[in-house]
């Protein structure tokens, strides 16, 4: 459930008509709902209420400081995958002891930043990284709590570009070799083994891959404890999917996901960490855009809009679907017809949807791409020198610009021409 609904004939974010935001901020613009973010975060907390837990928001899904502050103030931890994300989490007021550092290739500089600033746990992804962290921590006189990310070789049954738990993926250490790696970790200076980490992919719409992976984590916990390791935390990753199509079967709910966690690892007495991103913020955001032209093509009509693949990359990158809806509520029974909704960027891949069923549309009309809060703004670029897309946060009947659209001057000022040119 989200808070983007029609009121008095117009699509609103909570109590704010999107037309008002378009008039004041311009388009394209991302619009997030604070009430939806709060609600979704609460659902995960509720799903794990049966145990000690920390819900660590996956910062990579939406890293705006205002979004991080909102969630951090609710008690969320943060899952970061770079020094930049660590800096964002800290700037949003999240203490280091609520930040988990994930990511396949942490540099020494990034790990130093985390040790200096404070870190709850580093999730190790390889033996060379483990040795590098050990050497660094020892040289700094620090002891860093660590978990090893294991690759359980489970098929997440999701899009191949966002599956991470099969043995051919680059993530983690093969679970069969875990005992050996934990033995080395325990022997190295500067590291304190605290748990096990797993993350099998994103946009999972079925609980069975989670169940399979978590059952393997439970077995590994018992093995490692028998080997003398103090496993007190399990980081079970993120990945629970969201409904991208309104008319589709909805993916499982956080409460059902929490039940799978309880059934698989609930008897181990571990603190549970999870790292949801998409499920918290995906349906808490829309991308608001304006129709520039309606163009008659051969056998199809194009809706040329002012958002493009540089603003919302998922359709071009993954063939992803976002429901597209008009901001003006169509009359009941109004006829619809198919449009190919495209952006102005000079790439055929800049197509959001072919054959989107929409009512009569005209230049100047507003549309919204739904479910755009996760992996939307964070993947935006300035390709075609289109200034970085702005972001707005709505709460009740008010809103604030939480990232302003750069002016052309600001965009150009980042380049410099050497004096020898
Ligand atoms: C991407 C990622 C997540 C978040 O995944 P969602 O599908 O957005 O929930 C969590 N943990 C790790 C390690 C990730 O790489």
UniProtKB/TrEMBL annotation:
Cofactor(s) needed for function: pyridoxal 5'-phosphate
Coiled coil: none
Keyword Phosphoprotein: no
Keywords (A to Z) from UniProt: Amino-acid biosynthesis, Decarboxylase, Lyase, Lysine biosynthesis, Pyridoxal phosphate
Catalysis performed (reactions): meso-2,6-diaminopimelate + H(+) = L-lysine + CO2
UniProt keyword annotation of Iron present: no
Annotated pyridoxal 5'-phosphate binding sites: 239, 275-278, 375
Family: Belongs to the Orn/Lys/Arg decarboxylase class-II family. LysA subfamily.
Subunit details: Homodimer.
Protein's recorded name: Diaminopimelate decarboxylase
Organism: Paracoccus subflavus
């Amino acid at each position: 459930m989200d808070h983007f609904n029609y009121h008095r004939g117009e699509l609103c974010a909570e109590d704010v008509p999107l037309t008002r935001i378009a008039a004041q901020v311009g388009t394209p613009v991302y619009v997030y709902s604070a009430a939806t973010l709060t609600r979704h975060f609460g659902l995960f907390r509720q799903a794990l209420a049966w145990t000690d837990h920390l819900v660590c928001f996956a910062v990579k899904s939406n890293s705006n400081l205002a979004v991080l502050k909102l969630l951090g103030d609710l008690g969320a931890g943060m899952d970061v995958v770079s020094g930049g994300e660590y800096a964002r989490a800290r700037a949003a007021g999240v203490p280091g002891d609520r930040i988990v550092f994930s990511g396949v290739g942490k540099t020494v500089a990034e790990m130093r930043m985390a040790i200096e600033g404070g870190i709850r746990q580093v999730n190790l992804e390889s033996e060379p990284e483990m040795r590098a962290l050990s050497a660094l921590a020892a040289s700094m006189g620090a002891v860093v709590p660590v978990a090893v990310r294991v690759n359980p070789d489970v098929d997440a049954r999701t899009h191949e570009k966002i599956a991470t738990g099969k043995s051919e993926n680059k993530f983690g250490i093969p679970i069969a070799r875990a005992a050996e790696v934990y033995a080395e970790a325990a022997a190295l200076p500067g590291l304190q083994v605290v748990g096990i980490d797993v993350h099998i992919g994103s946009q999972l719409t079925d609980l069975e891959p989670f169940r399979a992976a978590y059952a393997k984590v439970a077995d590994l916990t018992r093995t490692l404890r028998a080997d003398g390791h103090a496993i007190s935390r399990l980081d079970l990753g993120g990945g629970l999917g969201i409904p991208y199509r309104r008319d589709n079967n909805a993916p499982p709910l956080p409460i059902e996901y929490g039940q799978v966690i309880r059934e698989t690892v609930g008897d181990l007495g571990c603190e549970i960490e999870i790292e949801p991103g998409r499920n918290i913020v995906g349906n808490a955001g829309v991308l608001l855009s304006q129709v520039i032209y309606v163009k008659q093509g051969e056998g199809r009509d194009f809706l040329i809009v002012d958002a493009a693949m540089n603003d919302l990359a998922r359709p071009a990158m993954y063939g992803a679907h976002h429901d597209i809806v008009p901001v003006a509520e169509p009359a009941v029974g109004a006829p619809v017809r198919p449009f190919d909704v495209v952006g102005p960027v000079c790439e055929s891949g800049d197509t959001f949807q072919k054959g989107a069923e929409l009512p009569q549309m005209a230049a100047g009309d507003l549309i919204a791409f739904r479910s755009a809060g996760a992996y939307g703004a964070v993947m935006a670029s300035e390709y075609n020198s289109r200034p970085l897309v702005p972001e707005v946060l709505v709460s009740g009947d008010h809103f604030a610009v939480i990232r302003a659209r750069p002016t052309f001057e600001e965009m150009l000022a980042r380049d410099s021409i050497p004096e020898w040119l």
